[in-house]
Structure formats: structure tokens, C-alpha cells
Amino acid sequence: MRHTIVMVTTSYPRFPGDTVGTFMEPIVRGVAALGHAVHVVAPWHPLVKRAPIEDGVHFHFFRYAPIAALNVFGYARALRADVTLRPAALAVAPLALVAGWRAARRVARQTNATILHGHWVVPGGAMAAAAADARPVVISLHGSDVFVAERYSVARLVARSTLRKAAWVTACSHDLEQRAIAIGAYPERTDVVSYGVDADRFKPDVTARAVVRERLECPMDTKIVFTAGRLVRKKGFEYLIEGVAQLRDRWQGLQLVVAGSGDLEGELRGRAAARGLSDRVRFVGAVPQDDMPTWFAAADIIVVPSVRDAAGNVDGLPNVVMEALASGTPLVTTTVGGISAVTVDRRTALVVDPGDAQALSDAIETLLQQPELSAALGRSARDNVCRSHSWIHVARRFDEIYERVTG
To answer: How many Cα atoms occupy the beta-carbon half-sphere of 163 within 13 Å?
Structure first.
């Protein structure tokens, strides 16, 4: 049975190539590709450049802020360094929640929707549940939403009520699933649906090496360690910089390339300078999604040094992990969140304890010293994600859930 689904979210790529909410687009398009009518309800933002209908997906952006400066709801802008809520986001939240609820309810009624699917239990899930009337609600958890519910009592009450109303709850990692159950999700109606990856975009590319090294104006034999993500605490970039610092004298040509922007950029630049790495750590800013496959394929090693930060926040499953695995470039990562569900130490990646700069350093050096191991890890990783982690596989999982909650 095909459904009309209203997807309520507070983050979605605002324009083609946007680096915000990147996993939402393949989820939405994958569901639409299976024949469902999909309507996305999301906050308006000054950078939104979307046609009303794209590839069968309908967009409905709701306005909520009386002045332009208060457009701070959603799009990864509510949390400072992913640790504390910004005062402006708190101030505007009531307006946005009401506007989002009204927009979701209006779209659901106009389209005769059969399912509401809320992303992030607070606030997207809460808006979907409030707008659902008698329709079944699916809630998908992505990480920061559960952290906010654990940290703030009002958010926890809203999350608990929303999870109890849901016909089904999905989490992108087992860790997130268990934390949601602790808040109030019913175990028998909660499941893990990991993210996917587009293995046709992220793949080995022999031409990428020269392209990136020319862009960086460095020799072809330069060893590049690449990492990407928002510059916030839970990404663990400070530990990676310390790990690279330990390799400085033994690997003279080694370059660390950091792609991304965020609240900690100044601090991370200062850390690199203090360790004498100003010429060895390149901060290249936010890289458009269309360019990311080239950076992944050009690197000698990709590192995802995720941690559970001091406030308790942790990634559900970083996109860059899946993209690195598909690229066939050897990966060094940690055991936090959902990473362990898609990596196997010394089979598809080198996996170390989080927050351990020495372990990161040792793993990077192992891969630099053992090109055979690097190549084997890359091949095995790509083979695994191609078989088990395509976005159409994710869409089919959601399709099964839709049938379950309407049957």
C-alpha cells in the first residue's frame, strides 16, 4: 500500500549541496522513490532555495520569527557547540513549535495524509504528534534530540509524552535506542534503522588524489589525513590534532585536513598553532556535498574521532563514517554511538577508544606503515556497505514500518 506521509523536521539541506541535515534528503527521496507521496514540513530559513516540488517530494516551509535575526530554530543552530541551548533558540521556540504544529496539521488535512513521520523527538516529533489527530505517528531519533531530552527537564517531559504516543520509534544506533527507552519509548515499538550511504557517489577515484593536492598546493606524495564535521565537542577533533602532533617529527609531509565549520573553530586553530602545526593542519571550511566524494577518495586516511562530550552528548551515527567506508579509503574511528554497529576493528576500520590521542596517533601510523592493511580495510569496508547499507535499504525499512503501523 502506498501512503501519503507528512515528514516533520527541523533540519534539511536548505539548497543543493548544503552541509546541514544531509542524511534527511536521501531518507525522504528514498521513501518517495518507493511510490509514497511525501510532504516535508520544515522551518523557513533565509538560505532555503527549494522548489515546491522536487523529485516527487513536496516542500512546505513555515515562518515563525517576527524579525530576521530570530531565524535560529533548527538547521543545527539551536545548540552552542552541541552542548548548551542558545538563548535566542529558547526564546523563539514557542513561536516555532506552534507554527510547525499548525503547518503540519494543515498539510496533513489538505493531503489526506495517512502517516506523520517526525524527525528528532524534540521538536519535530512533538510537532508531528500534536498534528496527527488519529493518524499513526513514526518518530525517528538522530542524537541531539535525545541529549536535549536527557539534559533539560521540560524537554524530557515533552519527549516522554511524544514517544508514548508514537506508533513506532526508530533510532540510528543501539545506544540511542536504549537511551530513548530510558526516557519512555516502548521497547516493543522501538527499532534501530541505521543510516545508509550512496555508494555510487562515494567510491574510489584515482583522479581525486591529484585534484586535491593541486587545490592544497602540496606535492603528489603528500600524505593526507582527512576529517569532516561540525566543529563541536562531540566530534573529538582536539584529540585528533593532538594525535597528529605526535607524528609531526616522524612524518614530515603529513597534512591534516579538517572540513567543517562551527563554534570551536578558533579554539581548534589555536590548539594546532600551540602544537606547532599551523602549516600541517588545514581548515578548509564547510565543503559542499558535491565536493565531499573527491576529498574522501583523495585522502590516504580518514579519521572520525567521535567522543561522548563532557555534557553527555554523542553522535548517533556520523554520516562521514558511512561515506568513508563507501569511499574505500582506510578509516580510523572510535567506539561511540552507532559507529560500532557498522565497523569491525581490523576488518573494515581501525577502531580505538574515544578521547585517546595516543591511540589515534598509533592507528594513523599503523596505516601509514602498512599500505597492504590500508588497502584491505578499504576494500572490505566498501564491500560491506554496498551489500548492507544503501539508502534504498533504509527506505525499505521505513516502508515496512509504515505497513506495520497502518496494518
So the answer is: 32
